[in-house]
Every structure is written in structure tokens, then in C-alpha cells.
Specification:
Pfam family, one: Peripla_BP_4
Organism: Nocardioides bigeumensis
Protein name: Substrate-binding domain-containing protein
Helix content: 40-55%
Subcellular location: Cell envelope
Order of helices and strands: HHEHEHEHEEHEHEHEHEHEHEEH
CATH class of one domain: Alpha Beta
CATH superfamily of one domain: Response regulator
Main location: other
Distance between the termini: 31 Å
Amino acid sequence: MRLRRTSITRRSRAMTGLVAGAVAALTLTACTGSAQDAENENNGDDTPVAAAGSNDEAGDSVTIGFSAPAADHGWMAAITNNVKALEDEYPDVDLRIAEGTNDVNLQISQVETFINDGVDAIVLLPFDGAAMTPIALKAMEAGIVVVNVDREFDDPNAARVTVLGDNYGMGVSAGQYVCEQADGNEDAIVAEIAGIDSLPLTQDRSQGFADALAECGLDVDARQAAEFTVESGEEVAANLLQAEPKIDFLWNHDDDQGVGVLAAIENAGRDEFVMVGGAGSANAMREIQDGSGVLKATVIYPSTQGADGVKLARLVLQGKAMSDLVEVEVPRTVQLYAPVVTSENVDQYIDSAFES
């Protein structure tokens, strides 16, 4: 069945969000500069400006708790591993990392322990954002800074800062890449292998993809949903390839399930189409570097979100800001960018990519 869903409002918001996300992503990593730069930013007025270059200097000692789901997926494992990598980077941070769990009740118990221990901040990637909202509110009411990562709470008051990837933007980036490669061919056949369809993140990715394709006169001709696993990716891809004798472009939402998708493609002996991945695994990037297969690009969904959350919690607790901004406080929401990785820029991203 052919799908065509066009939303001018969503597209406009996506383009605005992508620009804002790019700025936010840059400021997360570009927190250094000279004191003179900060003075110049002030332009002679009385607005206080965070001292540029001070963010990585030691500040007051702080205790930060971190909790995330189980590392049963390459991307999720990278989330926690990137947080652990900060332990030696900041001697002024006592980082307490709870064991990853997909049990909501256990994760609630972990946060309660952090509250009872009197930590200064909690960085939380919820297994279920709605279920974790009440305990996050309790932490905030106790005066603990909460940073919400990736899966949003139901109540914005449950977090001081929210760090997000850009699921809709992922779809937009993938769709724009397909449009560029189609180069005006409105008869190109586009297929999509999504993740878990009941998740808002999957719905957002698909909507962004459809909206971007509509800009160049394309739509999704065949779509099936998998479950973000290697096994489901292989099964769903095999079914799709059997049902579709010709495909020009295939977008797979997730590089972990993409391991199975690529296996199904190889087993089917299909190579007539261009495949785009999602999330940005090192496995996918090595395939892109090799260049001999169908996978030619992947769209980043940053696995740095947890580590970014810890860094932002530290800044809030130490009274610092993001020093490239004139704003003297850390923003309430930071959305990271979803760039497309191809053979032309893969070297820029592969060192920080996660293993599927």
C-alpha cells in the first residue's frame, strides 16, 4: 500500500528543530574559549556571561546518580558505557551508576535509593517515561536536579533538563538523503523497515521520513515493522524482499536490527537498491566504508545522550552554563542533531560510534 502523509506544520517544525538541534549539539561539545571571547559576547551591557573555558575546570564536588534500561541492545549499551567513561574525566563528580534494568519497579526503586542517599542530581533514561514520572517528580520536590534522557516524562516539571535525540529529524534526514539520491525520479520505489510500531519514537521516525519524501514527490511503497532486534530484522526483511521484486531505496530505522536486515539481503542475493541505516553503529559505518554492499548511509541517533545528561547535571549543580551561549543557565531542553553519515564523512563519526 502506498503511503503519503504530508504535514507542512510538522515539516516546518522539523527543519526548525534540526537547526536548533545542531546548535545545541555544537554547544555541548564546544564549551571552551577565551575569557576575552566571553567579554566580547557581553558587548558592553550588564548581562552576566558564563566564563568561557571554565566548564571543564574542577568545581564543587557533586554526586550524580545514573539509571538506564538494560544494555541488551548495542545503542543502549553505548549509553551506559559513555557515562562510565566520564568517571575518570571529572574528579569533582561522584558518579553512581545503577545496574541497567527493564523492570520499571526496579528502576523506580533505584531512583528512590538515590533520593534516600541524598544525591545532588539524578540522570535518568527511563524504561518507561510515563511510569517513571511520579518518582522523578518526587526527586525534584526533594531538591534533587533531575535530567531526563531520551524517553520523556509525562510532566515537564519532573526534570530540570531534558536531553533528546531527534526521532522525527532522523526520518527527515533519511528522506532527504533518498530524495537527493533519487535525483528527480518520482517513480523510485521506496521501502521502509521500522522499529516497534507502538512506540512514539517509531511513529515519529516514519512521519519524518514520509514528510521528507513528499517534498520530492516520493512516498513509501512498502513498509513493515520489526522489533529493534537482529532476529526480527532478518525475518521482516526476508518477508519484505519476497513481497517486493524491485526496490530502489530501503530505510531501516535501527542499525542493530540492521544486522539481521543485511543478512536477509545477502541471503536473497539482492543488490539493486540503496539502503540507509539508523542510529549510527560502528558496524554500519564499516559497511559504508567498505562500499561494496547496499548500505550507503546511516542516520545518527546519538548514544552520547546519557553522558551529555551527566555533563549538563554537573553544570547545573556547579552554577555554570553552556559557555558559548549568552544565556546564563543551562537550557531546559537540548535536542541533538540527526546527521547523515556517508562514505564522504564517515571518518568524522566512526570513532564515537557504538558496536551493534
